[in-house]
Amino acid sequence: xxxxxxxxxxxxxxxxxxxxxxxxxxxxxxxxxxxxxxxxxxxxxxxxxxxxxxxxxxxxxxxxxxxxxxxxxxxxxxxxxxxxxxxxxxxxxxxxxxxxxxxxxxxxxxxxxxxxxxxxx
Length: 121
Hints:
Elements: E1 3-7, E2 11-13, E3 18-25, E4 30-39, E5 46-51, E6 57-59, E7 67-72, E8 77-82, E9 91-100, E10 108-111, E11 115-120
Parallel strand pairs: 2-11
Antiparallel strand pairs: 1-3, 3-8, 4-5, 4-9, 5-6, 7-8, 9-10, 9-11
C-alpha cells in the first residue's frame, strides 16, 4: 500500500537545526512534486517548501534562507533541512507528494501523518 512516512520531528532550542525526512513507500510509478506543509494550533495548513522532480524549488517567504528542501528520486524520499529555527516554526509538519501509482492511473495527492516540530525560546 502506498503511503508517505515522515520522521525527524523533535523538540529543539531556538537557533537549532532539524532534518525531516519523508519516504514514499509501496513502489509508486512516478512522483512529480514533493513538498512540506505545516500547521500550527488554530491555524491553517500552509506550504513550507516544494521540490519538483527536476530539482526546482519554491519556498515560503518566512523560511527562505533558513530551510532547504531536497529529494532523492532513487529513494522516493524528500528532505527538509531546517536551520536557525524560531519558536514560530513550531507546528506539525506534513509531507505531501503528487503520485501516479501505475502508468494508467491519475495523479493523486498523498499526505503523511505529520511530525511534530517544537522550537523553544
